[in-house]
Amino acid sequence: MKKKVISIILAGALVVSMGAMAGCGSSSDDSGDTTDTTESAAEETSAEAEAEADADAEDESGVGEYDLSGLDQTYTLTLTQHDPENSATGTFLNNFAAAVEEASEGYLTIEVYHGATLAGPKDTYDYVLNGSADIGWGLQSFYADTFPVTEVFMLPLIDIQSATNGSQAIWEFWNTTDYMDEEYSNFHVLLLHTNCQSAIETVSTKIETLDDIAGMQLRGNAGPPTDFITNLGANPVSVSINDLYSNLDRGTIDGCITDWHAVNSFSLDEVLSWYLDENIGVSTYFMVMNQDSYDALPEVLQQLLDDVAEDSLKYTEVWDQYEEEVKEAVADKLYNLSDEERAKLEDVAQQTIDEWIESMDAAGYDGQAIYDTAMECIANNQ
């Protein structure tokens, strides 16, 4: 079930509007008696001020108030994720859990299991599907061929400018199209979002021309990032994010394409020497819930959970903060391609995009329509 937060601002405006119309109609009755117009005006002004205050409060929190009077027990949900607790993900999910508990007045709490302590990075899907975890946060790219439409937001060098931009775009795409419905049909979707941009990071070689990339062993996520690495003439290598540091340190791989947040959270800056900062692309994330676990909640808590999850889009700015801080910390190792080489990089990116569209068409999708719609969503949220 897709969801839309019903704004209390609109509801409040409707109530005030109806009250105003009733007031105009009741200023005099059939007998000709008149009301105290001064008192009515004062009451109406007070009601409007109270409605505006409520609306301001809703603007602050992003969610409204809920009638919890019918609840007679508390509920606890488990949430699994694989990043460290001191990462952007940890901050994001702790904020989400705290907001749920506050909005529900303690009737609904979420226990967050950080750092793959409940499920590994590639186990999250199954853990949520079979109910071993109520909620799972993870990357679609860890599940090859499972989220083909979602991959449109992982294409290289598309114009996603920030984590907040990408997150708002994919959420708009989810709520305004049915392109992704089938690939999330096993779950209740709480939120889809993206992280910040990625660079091409290397251990020893400074990439100044695309020829420098040829033959490199590069780690990238499955899907478009892997295809992009192949089209660059490098060799894509599958390495778990938790094992990325050791592989870079041992020289098993020459570099990686991963986001700025991961550089910090997994201490990759200790083994990386160069960062080609060309906004290569972003990763997409899901926060999905076991459908039976969702259905077992009272309706008021279902709505509250949906609302707080959607409001959590504002917390995605933490990935942008990480990007800014990490770039500042490695500024002396940060560089860009020449205009000529950048143009070549864009050509390879376009080749990857064209191939993705063709593969989607071959699989029975309208690849061009999906791509065009995604780009519109990105543009709408810049």
Major sheet:
6 strands, mixed
Give the assembly state of these chains: single chain
Number of strands: 11
Q: Helical segment tally?
A: 13
Average pLDDT figure: 87
Biggest sheet strand line-up: 7-6-8-5-9-11
Distance between the termini: 27 Å
Strand coverage percent: 5-15%
Q: Which ranges are low-confidence, i.e. pLDDT below 50, for 5 or more consecutive residues?
A: 3-47, 49-61
Tell me, what's the shape? globular
Order of helices and strands: HHEHEHEHEEEHEHEHEEHHHEHH
**Helical content (DSSP H or I, runs of 4+):** 40-55%
Cα-based radius of gyration, to the nearest Å: 25 Å
Class derived from helix and strand content: alpha/beta
Would you give an account of this structure?
The structure is a single chain. The chain is an alpha/beta fold and 382 residues long. It is built from 13 helices and eleven strands. It has helices spanning 8-25, 37-61, 88-103, 124-129, 163-176, 224-231, 244-250, 260-265, 291-295, 299-311, 317-329, 339-362, 367-380, and strands at residues 75-80, 108-113, 135-139, 187-194, 198-202, 217-219, 235-237, 255-259, 274-276, 284-290, 334-335. The strands form two sheets. A six-stranded mixed β-sheet has the order 7-6-8-5-9-11. A five-stranded mixed β-sheet has the order 2-1-3-10-4. Strand 1, helix 3 and strand 2 (108-113) form a beta-alpha-beta unit. The protein is globular and about 65 Å long.
